[in-house]
Give the backbone structure.
Amino acid sequence: MSLLVATLLTGLVLLALGGWFLWNSPTVKSCSIAFLRSMPAAVVLFGGAAAWFLWHISNLGQADFGDYKQLLFLLFAGTAIGSFFFVKDFLAVRGLAILMLLCARPLLNAAYMQYDDPQRLLLVGFVYLGIVLALYVGAAPYHLRDFLNWLFAQDSRARFLGTALAAYGALLSVVAFTY
């Protein structure tokens, strides 16, 4: 993935997310809260994250436990399937966190060794912030529920977050064309 595509995609995702929180209707609030424990969202997000992770496992090289990749594949596939039966609570949030972590690698690889473009740090800084948030929310997904309850307690909070995300998304979208 090129640096232009990585930055532009991240900017567009942030614009869409910012627009979601700027809209801030009762539907936005109810859908955002319902997302946390939604089984269809869990199937899409956690299932997609598990499939992507299992793809990585299936492509392990000799130096990366390649001799054990079938065993690792079965272990992680069993864990992913078992999660749908035994750890249903906040599975969509965990899937989103895993997807954020998996998406970080291609985004950071796109900016790797691009020292001639210092504006790449706008993307890299945001990706590292996303990694920290994904680790935090993945470990304690109920904190996202608490954050959303706090966020939607006052309309101005959601609108401020939406404005900030949309503005940063617009900045990244513009910066993408300066490489």
Summary: The mean pLDDT is 94.
